[in-house]
Amino acid sequence: MTDGAPSPAPRSEPAEQHESTTERIRPIDRVLSHLEGVHRSGVGFMARCPHHADRDASLSVKERDDGVVLMHCHAGCGNVDVVVSAGLAFVDLYPAGSRERRRPRTWKGIVPMARHGRPALVSFGDPVTACMLGELARLAYVRGNLDRGVAAALRLVATAVDVSNELLRESVREAIDTEASP
After folding, report:
1. Which residues are 106's β-sheet partners?
2. Which residues lie closer than 8 Å to 26 by C-beta, 6 or more apart?
3. Residue 118: closest CA among 162, 81, 159
4. 163 exposed, middle or buried (CB, 10 Å; 0-12, 13-18, 19+)?
5. Strand runs labelled E in 56-138
6. Confidence (pLDDT) at 110
7. What digits encode the pLDDT tens for the residues 128-152?
8. Residue 146 to residues 24, 63, 141, 151: CA-CA distances in angstroms?
9. Is 87 helix (H, G, I), strand (E, B) or coil?
10. How many other CB atoms are found less than 10 A from the CB of residue 127?
11. Helices 165-180 and 126-142, interaxial angle, to 10°?
C-alpha cells in the first residue's frame, strides 16, 4: 500500500510466522497490498482504482464476515477489469477452504486464467499451454483428485502439445504452490 496508510488488519503473530507456508494471508490483506491510495472508510477501505486513471479513491473494498472481499468501482469499472488490472485473480478474493477456490479460474466464463490473474489464452505458446495444464492440476489438487491417473493424463496432453516434462512439472508446482501459500 502507499500513502502511508496503516496496515489494514493488525496481526497478533510475528511476521516471520505469518509468512510461513502453513499460515495463510487473509484475502483482504492480499487485495489491499495490490492497491494504491488505500485508506479506511466506514467499515471498509477506499483506494484508487487500478483500471482507470484515478486521482481520487473511487474503489470501495470491504471484507464480509466470511472473509470474502467485495469491491466496487464508483466510476463504473467492471469487477473483472479491476481484479485483472490489480494483478489479482478472482480466487484471491476468497479465503482458503472457500468453495469458490475450488471453481475453475475463468474470465468471462470461458477463458482460463493464468496464475498472475490474466487470461491464459493470449497465445498458445509453450508456457501458456503449460500454465493451463498447471491450472488443471491445481483444480484436481484442491478437489482432492490429483493422483497418478490425473498426472498421466496431464503428461499425455503436454506431450501432444509439445510441452516439455520440465516445464509441465514447474507449472504444476507453481499452480499448487498458490494453494499452499496464496
Report:
1. 112
2. 9, 63, 67, 95
3. 81
4. buried
5. 59-63, 69-73, 106-107, 111-112
6. 46
7. 677 778 888 888 888 888 888 888 8
8. 22, 31, 5, 7
9. coil
10. 14
11. 40
Give the pLDDT confidence score for residue 21 in this predicted structure: 35
Cβ distance 34 to 88 under 8 Å? Answer: yes
Whether the per-residue pLDDT at 117 is higher than 70: the answer is no
Residue 105, burial from CB neighbour count under 10 angstroms (0-12, 13-18, 19+): buried
Query: How large a percentage of the chain has pLDDT more than 90?
Result: 25
What is the set of domains in the chain, with CATH numbers?
A: 1-95 (3.90.580), 104-182 (no CATH)
What pLDDT, in 10s, does the model give residues 45-97?
A: 999 999 998 888 999 999 999 999 999 999 999 888 888 888 887 778 888 87
Whole-angstrom distance, CA of residue 86 vs CA of residue 107: 15
Q: What's the alpha-carbon Rg for the chain, to the nearest Å?
A: 18
Q: Which of 112-116, 144-148, 163-167, 170-174 is predicted with the least confidence, judged by mean pLDDT?
A: 112-116
Q: What pLDDT, on the 0 to 100 scale, is given for residue 71?
A: 95
